[in-house]
Structure formats: C-alpha cells, structure tokens
Amino acid sequence: MAQKPPTEHGARDAVQKGRRKESSQEQRGDSPQGPRGGSAQGRLADAPKGSRDRSASGAARTPGAADARGADARGAEGAGFSRRRLLGTAGATGLVLGAAGAGTGYAVGEAGGSGESGAEGRPLSALGTDMVMFHGKHQPGITTPMQAHGHLLAFDLAPGAGRKEAAALLRRWSGTAARLMAGEPAATAGGRDTDIARDAGPSLLTVTFGFGHSFFARTGLERSRPDALDPLPDFSADRLDKGRSNGDLWVQIGAQDALVAFHALRALQKEAAGAARVRWQMNGFNRSPGATARPMTTRNLMGQIDGTNNPKPSEKDFARRVFVPEDGAPAWMAGGSYAVVRRIRMLLDDWEQLSGGEQERVIGRRKSDGAPLSGGTETTDPRLEKTGPDGELLVPLDAHARITRPDQNGGAAMLRRPFSFHDGIDADGEPDAGLLFICWQADPLRGFVPVQRKLDRGDALSKFLRHEASGLFAVPGGAAQGEYVGQRLLEG
C-alpha cells in the first residue's frame, strides 16, 4: 500500500488530483503511463469501446448487451487513478482468463488465472489503485476478479418500514457504494467518514445488492416477485440455521484490502439505521494477491484447486447462463442474476484423515495441479470412461469432478465466486471453517438446483460437508448514472 501523502486528507486528496491531471491528458489524447509503460495491463485500449467512452461530464456510458463476453475489471497501472483505469462493471472490459480455464476467480493483469495473483512483476503497491465502476449494465461483484477479503450480510427491513423506506435506503446505499468504489469518502448520514480506509485506494472494492423472497411481501410488491425466487428445495446435507439464512436484503462486499472492505461494511450498516437491521453477517477470504509465483486457480481449505470448470466469459452462452436477458421476466430483472449463497462447513478433521490418493479419488482430480485422474492438465476434459490396469474407472462414478460437469447435469451451469471462512474452533476442538459458496445464474432451476440434487444423491465429497446456512437473492441489473439499484422495481 502506498504511503500516506503529506496532506490533510491523505491519499484521497492524491486520488482527486490524479483524476484531474489524467483527465486533461485524455482530452489531449495522451495515454497515462504506469510503472509498466504501455503494457496492456491496466489499459482499456483493447476492450470493447463502450467501456472506455465517456461523456463530457466524465460519466461512464452503459455498455451494450453484446459486451457480456468481457469482464468488469482489469488491473490498473501506476499510483494514480485515471478514467482509463476505471474497471467497468458491465461485462465489457475484456476479462482475462488464465490457463486454469476460469477458476473460482479471474486474474487482474496480463496473465490469466484466478485473480489472487497480479500480473508477473507487478508491484503490489499498485493493487490499491484497482477500481471498478459502480454504474453499468450489470452490478459489480459478479464477474469482477476474486478479491482477497469479503463480507456477506443480510438485512431485514425495520418494523413499519415498507416500499418507501426501502427505496430511500437503496438510493443511499447506491450513492455510498459508488463513492467508496471510486476511492472517495463515504459521506454517510452522520456527515463524517470513519477514516478507516483513509490512506488506501479503492483496492478493487465492489458492492452488490440483492432482494430476498421476503422483501416483496414486506414492501407490497408480491406481484413483482420473480418465479425464479421461489424457495430452494430441501437437500439431505442441509443442517440449516434459519437465523443465518435468507433475509429481505442482501449485500456482498469484496476488496483486495481488509480495511477497505470493512470501511464499506461499516458505512452501509450505518446508512441502514432506522430502515433495516442486520439479520446475519459472514466474513470470508481468498488467497492474497502476489502469494503465488504465477497466476493460478485458487485452492479451498481442503487444499484442492477449486473452480476449474467455471463458465468462461469467452463462451458464447456465458451471458445466457449467468444473466437474465433483456427480454426476460420480470422486466426489472433484465441484466440481473440470481445469487445462491450457502455457508458450507468443511469437516476438515475427517477429510485430513484420508490419504492423498483417497482425497484425489473423492474429487476426481490430482491435488498437485488439478488435472483429472484420467490424465492431462487442469484444463483437460476428463476421459470419464477411461479405466486403469485394474479395470476400474480412473475418475470414479461418485467423484465430485464427474458429478458437477454440465454434460452430466443436462447442461446446468453456474458461475461460482466463493470465499473461504474460518470462524474459530468449536466446543469439540474442530475448526469452524469452510466455504461461503456463492453462485450466479440466470435461473436457479437451470443452475444450482439440478447440480445440487445430483450431488445430494451420490457425491463422494458430500460426507465431508455440512450446509449450515442458505439464501437465494434476486440481484437486479446495474444502475445507470443518476439511478439506484432496484429503482425499476421500487418505482416501476
């Protein structure tokens, strides 16, 4: 992280000065150069035009639907913040995928991978400059690169609060999120920022908002509730704590810096005072940027490479699988997605009693590099019918990698974007740790539900997992400049 400049307001003054200086450079046609000069890293020159063009006021234009193949983030160069370094949330700025084939996260920078490592040779001090635009066709935090720190919260509307109060809250939240994601102070209702992130840049901060099933009854909008938001079915592995499940409103926060993430959490919680109260909160993490020598798919707390078969934005059907189409129903969900959130505890003491070979057969992949047990590399398609010298299938019938493949589930697919969690040691001396599973899809009945049903019937990994909390949320499309998230629903 950059050192604090000798000004009254620290690094955030430098942010504003950098914007003014580089804005004038852009008007002259100059290209601001960072520590890596003209590298593609941090530049949007090779991205679809809609993500770079800006109006005279500096507001980002909303990219078109055809831009769904790209990303909503890319690494920024240098210590300053320029409009060229804004990372669009509309799926329009060329998401870089690694050899891992889109693991649980996406890389920031020239080399692809999981998003936990910057491009090779990139100074870590530049990570604080990564910025994502709040406004766009899709909300941030869906195809944004995986961040190192995350918070998930559900809120219930306060007694007596309804549609009017919810609209006012979403307007406040949207304004605060846009400022924080741009590296600006929160300017909350109290009129004073907490200064928690005073010395930091935006650090790839994203804030994402969604609506739970109960929200629509609380606001008198039952007729606008999507059919896709019907409650999830029960599964045999569920041991759900109702107090930590569902909720009227859902907020996802992610950032590369822990203080930046907590700053956003605190600001949004304060903004909700009087209108909504926290129902539950969960905190998660991923591998820190620069932790690996090269970009690679991340690992989960079982030590497994996790996320190899995620859908890739380069695939022609990516947008169809992840986002509600423009002509989808209901109309207010156009450009949105449905988030399934599960707190999945990993029974690590039991898992770690298995030998390395036993663990690999449960997963169906090598633990060292994620390659299928039938041979090849991480991105090689498993040869599901291949047998070993003993005549047994190399990828067992109940292997997790076999069961979760789209071609084994009628084409069902979802974009997984989880965080790991560790909430201490329980009374039995076992770690309360696992995965904050978050998956995105245009319709849960064509994504999470069929896959989980199949896992429920015969996945070898299931005996080492316990689903302890669950939620399903309708996440509307992104807000245009001057609008707030959910405005088409609340004012339609």
UniProtKB/TrEMBL annotation:
A single BP term in Gene Ontology: iron import into cell
What GO cellular-component annotations does this UniProt entry give?
Answer: cell envelope; cytosol
Q: Which SUPFAM superfamilies match?
A: Dimeric alpha+beta barrel (SSF54909)
Q: Subcellular localization, per the record?
A: Cell envelope
A Pfam family that this protein carries is Dyp_perox_N
Instruction: List the InterPro entries hit by this protein, alphabetically.
Output: Dimeric_a/b-barrel, Dyp_perox_C, Dyp_perox_N, Dyp_peroxidase, EfeB/EfeN, TAT_signal
Q: What class of enzyme is it?
A: oxidoreductase
Give GO terms: molecular function aspect only: ferrochelatase activity; heme binding; metal ion binding; peroxidase activity
The Dyp-type peroxidase N-terminal domain covers which part of the protein? 139-286
**Which family is this sequence assigned to?**
Belongs to the DyP-type peroxidase family.
Put simply, this protein is called Deferrochelatase
Organism, by scientific name, is Streptomyces albus (strain ATCC 21838 / DSM 41398 / FERM P-419 / JCM 4703 / NBRC 107858)
